[in-house]
Amino acid sequence: MAKVDQDVLVATENRLGEIELELGRLTEVSHRLKAQWQLEKELIARIRGIKSEIEDVKQQAAEFERHGDLAKVAELRYGRELELERELVEANARLEEA
To answer: I need a labelling partner for 8 at 20 to 30 A (CA). Which of 16, 26, 31, 71 fits?
Structure first.
């Protein structure tokens, strides 16, 4: 009976060691995936923010156009809007890489 108990104890300890190794590996994978998720979440928030800014700039440009301030329209459309479009392309590229 003692031999059987000893064999069961050894097998149990071996299995416990395997489980602890697997748990360590899965914990590491979980941390990597969480970091990846956080990065993607931040990039998506940035992309949404840029898109919102672009819409605001377009609305401002339309308002200035209605009032005849074409210099301000040009500044917004060919300055700030293009800058935001470049930022959007960069943010989308970073998201694709992530």
So the answer is: 26
Question: pLDDT tens-digit profile of 16-40?
Answer: 999 999 999 999 999 999 999 999 9
Burial of 21 (C-beta count, 10 Å sphere; 0-12/13-18/19+): exposed
Closest CA to 61 of 46, 85, 78: 78
Q: Which domains does the chain have, with CATH numbers?
A: 2-97 (3.40.50.300)
Q: What is the largest CA-CA distance in the chain?
A: 98
If DSSP codes are grouped into helix, strand and coil, which group holds residue 49? helix
What is the enclosing helix (H) or strand (E) of 74? Answer: helix 70-75
Go through the chain and tell me how many residues it has: 98
Q: What is the pTM of this model?
A: 0.76
